[in-house]
Every structure is written in structure tokens, then in C-alpha cells.
Amino acid sequence: MFIKISSFVFSQNDSSSFNVIPENYFHFNYENDFFSATDRYYTQGVSAQLIHPVIRHSPISKVLIKLKGPVTNYYGLQIKQDCFTPKSIRIDTIMFGERPYAGTFLVSHSLSSLNKQQNLLLHTQLDLGIIGNYAMCEEEQKAIHKALDNIEPLSWEYQLANEFVINYRGKVEKGIFSNRHFDLTGNANVKVGTLYTDVGTGINLRFGFFDPYFNNLGLSKDPISRKFKVFGVIKANAKLVGYNAAIQGGVFSKDIYVIDANNLSRFVFEGTAAITIAYKTFSLTYSQTYITREYHTGVDHSWGGIFITKAF
After folding, report:
1. What are the structural domains, with CATH classification, of the chain?
2. Residue 136: phi, psi to the nearest 5?
3. Per-residue pLDDT averaged across 214-241, rounded?
4. pLDDT of 21 over the 70 cut
5. Which of 43-47, 183-187, 252-256 has the lowest mean pLDDT?
6. What is the β-pairing status of strands 282-291 and 41-51?
7. Residue 184's beta-bridge partner residues?
């Protein structure tokens, strides 16, 4: 299936050749393991993204890849903060064998290139940012716990050192089967850089009342589009991990404590179940994600997320 896809990837055609004006989107995402009644590992993630044609004029857009043929290209700009802690935040010393405290803050340029005729979507993204205390995860977690009259997180002084990070991501999705109330897509994805390096593959299953997956990025202003949508989603992804700086520390930084490469789990599975409710150009999604242990002395983990999208 994916061998055929490669012939569509390396092109400089633009959506103007298809005479399509894509929708603009604003996304806000919030993830926290509070929804799974835990406070460990990937403990919080917050992101905001704008998808708008003006972003194509950024010089960084030149390193993003478009599909061939009649395509619609969606250019995006995103800011994202992710926060990580060990299994317990109540210990005031280093927990050897546990993941270190870490925070990341990224500014990302992305391109989602969609070929509706081929049921094909290519997403490429360049991440620029920082890992370390400049990501402000320590201050944020302590402020949230104080506001909720919860325990103060201990040992943030041992978090990973500051280091600039750069990453490139690619993900190609191809339709496998679809009808009015059920569709299945497959994907292959890769990350390369100083933050994450891994390669994976997965599937995405939807069931319910929705528009075709490859019509757009989820919402449409077209009057013939379904006004009310409600559907469930099941995602499964398996990846081979080469490097994870949020666990192993930065490539060049000198950290107080990290997880050694020999302790890193090279095969990781991640699964997500979600439900989406949408009306016209607004959608709300709630998800639950499960991930197998990312290092041998760790445990499995799960978290929940709320995703808000507005098309305009």
C-alpha cells in the first residue's frame, strides 16, 4: 500500500492548481493524566494551532512537502508545551530508574497536503524549541497544585537541563475502506531530530455520522456538508524508538540524571479512543490514550484530552 504512495510525495504543486480555497482552522488541545486519576509521566500537554493560507509565506514552509496532483494544502503554526514527571512527585530526591522531570516548549510550522482523489494525506512539520526549565513546566505544575490545594510537587530542581531542540516529522495517511458510517485509514510516520527519533505505523478507525475523511481536515463551510456530526474514533500506533530526549536528556546537555539508553523501550504501542461531536464549523472531542512503558523500569500510562476546533 505505502509503496504506491511514494510516487505522489515529492512535488511543488500548490492548491491553486486545484482552484480550492481551504478552510481556516483554530485548534486548542489540552491533555492531562488527571483524567486517568494519575499524576506521572506525560502529566500535561497544552497546544494552540492556527491553520491559515498566510502561513505559507513563512520561509520555513519551503522545507515542508506537498503532494502531487490536485491537492489542497493547509499551512499551520502551532505552539505546544509538554510536561513530564517521574512516577511519584512526592519524593524529594532523584528516583533512580524513573524518568526525569522534563518540560518541552515548541513552535511548529506544518503542512497538511490533501489529495482527495487518491484518498491521501501527507503531514510534514518542523519543530523548533527548548527542553528544560525554560519550558516553565515546574512553575505551571506548582501553580496548578497550589490553586487546587493539592500537594506541592517535589524534586523539579533535578529536571533536564536547557537545550535547543529541532525536529522534523512526517506522516502519510491512506484510505483503506469507507462507507457512510465507517472508515478505516492506515498511516506511516517518522520523527527525526534532537528531541524525538522514531518510526511507526498505525490505523485509524471511525464510526458514526461524519463527512468523508479526505474531504478536508474535519470541518467544512460547504452548505452540502453534514451539519451535525457525531462519531467515535479508535487509533492504534506501534513505533520503534531510536531516541527520546524527554527521557534521555538533550544531545549536548549535561544533565543531573537521565534514563540510560540501555533502559529505553525500543518498541512502544499507543492506542487512543475518542468521541467527537460537531455542529457546522465547531467540534469538541474527548479522548483517552494508553501507552506501553517507554523504558524498562517504568510502567504503562494513560491520559485524557479535550480538543476544540473552529473552522472559519
Report:
1. 2-311 (2.40.128.140)
2. 70, 25
3. 93
4. no
5. 252-256
6. unpaired
7. 177, 205
